[in-house]
Amino acid sequence: MSVSDLVGEIDDVRRRTRAATRGGAVPLAMLGLLVLAATPFYAAAANFLYVGRGYVQVIGGGLLTRPTFVERLLRAHPNAYPHLGVGRYWLVAMPLAFAAVTAYYALRARRSGLSVNGWRVAATGGGLLALIVAVMATAAVVPGALGDYFGPSDVLNPFLVVVVAILVLARVERSVAILVAGLVFAVAVVAADALVYTDVYGDAWDSWRTWGWATLALGVLLLAEAGAVALVRRPRA
Amino acid sequence: MTTGQHPLADLDDLVHQRARLGILAMLREAAKVDFVRLRETLGLTDGNLARHLQVLAEAGYVTTRKAQSRTWVSLTANGRKAFDKELAALRALVDRFV
């Protein structure tokens, strides 16, 4: 065998192995479903809140000027009244989604005999979620200081966890397509954050109603991206 | 190639063996590869593959771990460097003679 044949054979083994390890579209779709399923919670929350500077008014209820730990914990982002379940949804559904991603990779490794460290997606995402919970739990909130409540720390929100999880997924899968999908989703999240979720001053009523639509759009975007990643032509196995 | 010498000088006799190059090539693309998958993909016998893995493990290029009745093989940092260096040397040889 010539040296060039040997190099060609090595390249072929690498290409076939890489093709067999690819499967990032499925976890990406799982994260898309996670976001999509949050839609009714955000839609419901939006109909019951008026968010002003320094306070949150529950329609038909009182002002929340000193949110409790539970309220902060369950706030997620955008801010939601705890009884409406947005926070509960993320705290329950997100760990379940990461567990599903880890289980998927474990199952795939058993079936194919190839492993790509998919647990890192759950480890990073779960760690970041825990950080958010810790920040919310320890943040100092004084009466009338809800302005801080909506400050820069709002960057720490569940959608950010999803963005970071996708970027880790791209790294694990060594996939440019997933990296692009993650960056596009990140831009969409920032845009939704600026244009919809936090834009509740002035023409607030419209903004409330768009919370649900924005979440729906983000979920659909992720699912579409998962479809696109699956359709990216795979190397011949 | 990492030196100004002839590319042949950069070849590593331990890695250069064809089956070992195949093993390292697969491990370069996955975090862990099952023994059976390696054997079937590379067309080796159990004994032959085990012997090659032993040589690579003794050189510190791969590690093996048994879990749930399977043997998982993974590349070490030294193994990754050795494989990349070998492949670069081989490509330099091809370039020199093309």
List keywords for this structure.
heterodimer; A: 237 residues; mainly alpha; three-stranded antiparallel β-sheet; 4 strands; 5% strand; B: 98 residues; alpha+beta; 5 helices; 15% strand
Radius of gyration of chain B: 14 Å
Please work out how many helical segments of chain B DSSP would assign. 5
Query: Which structural class do you get from the secondary structure elements of chain A?
Result: mainly alpha
Number of helices of chain A: 10
Overall spatial form of chain A = elongated
Give a quick precis of the structure.
The complex is a heterodimer of chains A (237) and B (98). With 237 residues, chain A is mainly alpha-helical.
Explain what the structure shows.
- Chain A is mainly alpha-helical.
- Chain A is built from 10 helices and 4 strands, in the order αααβββααβααααα.
- Chain A has a 3-stranded antiparallel beta sheet with strand order 1-2-3.
- Chain A starts with a helix and ends in a 6-residue tail after the last helix.
- The relative contact order of chain A is 0.18.
- Residues 51-55, 65-83, 140-153 and 200-207 of chain A have low confidence and may be disordered.
- By secondary structure, chain B is an alpha+beta fold.
- Helix content of chain B is 59%, strand content 15%.
- Chain B has helices at 13-16, 18-29, 35-42, 46-58, 77-97; strands spanning 32-34, 62-67, 70-75.
- Chain B has a 3-stranded antiparallel beta sheet.
- The mean pLDDT of chain B is 88.
- Classes of the chains: A mainly alpha (237), B alpha+beta (98).
- β4 of chain A pairs antiparallel with β1 (32-34) of chain B.
